[in-house]
From TrEMBL:
UniProt keyword Transmembrane, yes or no: no
NCBIfam families linked: dapB (TIGR00036)
Gene: dapB
Functional description taken from the UniProt entry: Catalyzes the conversion of 4-hydroxy-tetrahydrodipicolinate (HTPA) to tetrahydrodipicolinate.
Sorted UniProt keywords: Amino-acid biosynthesis, Cytoplasm, Diaminopimelate biosynthesis, Lysine biosynthesis, NAD, NADP, Oxidoreductase
Reaction(s) this enzyme catalyzes, per UniProt: (S)-2,3,4,5-tetrahydrodipicolinate + NAD(+) + H2O = (2S,4S)-4-hydroxy-2,3,4,5-tetrahydrodipicolinate + NADH + H(+); (S)-2,3,4,5-tetrahydrodipicolinate + NADP(+) + H2O = (2S,4S)-4-hydroxy-2,3,4,5-tetrahydrodipicolinate + NADPH + H(+)
Cellular compartment(s): Cytoplasm
Binding residue positions for NAD(+): G8, C9, A10, G11, R12, M13, D34, G88, T89, T90, A113, P114, N115, F116
Pathway the protein contributes to: Amino-acid biosynthesis; L-lysine biosynthesis via DAP pathway; (S)-tetrahydrodipicolinate from L-aspartate: step 4/4
Native species: Paraeggerthella hongkongensis
Record-given protein name: 4-hydroxy-tetrahydrodipicolinate reductase
Family matches, as Pfam families: DapB_C (PF05173), DapB_N (PF01113)
């Protein structure tokens, strides 16, 4: 049995993780961690922070779906204690991830996936395959209006993958010079030369389009996540996989075969 602690257990994603882990036969939730978890009707203890959880419970894996401004501190407590971490909270830079992984006890894994849905991972793979053949690409992501970071981690990762697959050829991001004064940003944020647009609206969970353009043709790849259960197979795969791995691993594709 893999013993799991869930940070952010009172949140939208954390609630779904507690439910999914509880239903899996090879793992169990030993505790939740959330400063707003005191009122939860939970069947396991809920601690206010990771340090208290490490003192009060024994667990193999910490799953973190919290907030961009707290996730680094959570990992700073768990990794040196030898707890493998499965992280979905977005907003961590590569540099911070590397620093955190370096602080881990030997044999410990820090696994971060900007997107835990298999469909989004495939969308990024397809984008990687298309990028060398299309001079232009734009990423448009759509999320619910409570999302705390823009653009999304998936959009940033997609733009980075496209930039790498172009083999160093920079996009001209046509039209940026035409942005009206006082309306800068109309052509999106440039992430490694790829325009990225973030839409926030009620009605969405998480969707993304990658639009490629070439002479006389466009190619659009779209992924929609309609429900938070879409992330759970990926989260469970991460929990099952980290025990045999060490160091920093970024992206669910590393565990999909
Ligand atoms: P949410 O606001 O519903 O939940 C966050 C929870 O974290 C809250 O209950 C809050 O009280 C708790 N929290 C705050 N500080 C904490 C701390 N120090 N320790 C433990 N818990 C703490 O947010 P959400 O919609 O569940 O999203 C959580 C994160 O997951 C966001 O960063 C979001 O972008 C990310 N996310 C990632 C994926 C992915 O596939 N990687 C998918 C969806 C969401």
């Amino acid at each position: 049995m893999i013993k799991v602690a869930v940070a952010g257990c009172a949140g939208r994603m954390g609630t779904a993780v507690v439910d999914a882990v509880g239903k899996a036969e090879d793992m169990e939730v030993v505790c939740g961690i959330d400063p707003h978890g005191a009122d939860l009707d939970a069947s396991q203890p809920v601690f206010a922070n990771v340090s208290e959880a490490l003192e009060g419970a024994a667990f193999d894996v910490l799953v973190d779906f919290t907030q961009p401004n707290v996730v680094a501190d959570n990992l700073r407590a768990a990794l040196p204690a030898g707890v493998d971490c499965v992280v979905g909270t977005t907003g961590l830079s590569n540099q911070v991830l590397e620093e955190l992984a370096a602080s881990a006890a030997p044999g410990t894994c820090l696994f971060y996936a900007p997107n835990f849905t298999t469909g989004a991972v495939l969308m990024m793979e397809f984008a990687k395959a298309a990028a060398p053949y299309f001079p232009e690409a734009e990423v448009i992501e759509f999320h619910h209006c409570n999302k705390k970071d823009a653009p999304s981690g998936t959009a940033v990762r997609t733009a980075q993958i496209i930039a790498q697959a172009r083999g160093g050829r920079a996009s001209e991001a046509p039209g940026r010079e035409t942005e009206m004064e006082g309306m800068e940003g109309a052509r999106g944020a440039l992430v490694e030369g790829v325009p990225v647009h973030a839409v926030r609206s009620m009605g969405y969970v998480a969707s993304q389009e990658v639009m490629f353009g070439s002479l006389g043709q466009t190619l659009t790849i779209r992924h929609d996540s309609w429900d938070r259960t879409s992330y759970m197979p990926g989260v469970l795969l991460g929990i099952r996989s980290v025990g045999a791995r060490e160091g920093l691993i970024v992206g669910l594709e590393n565990f999909m075969s």
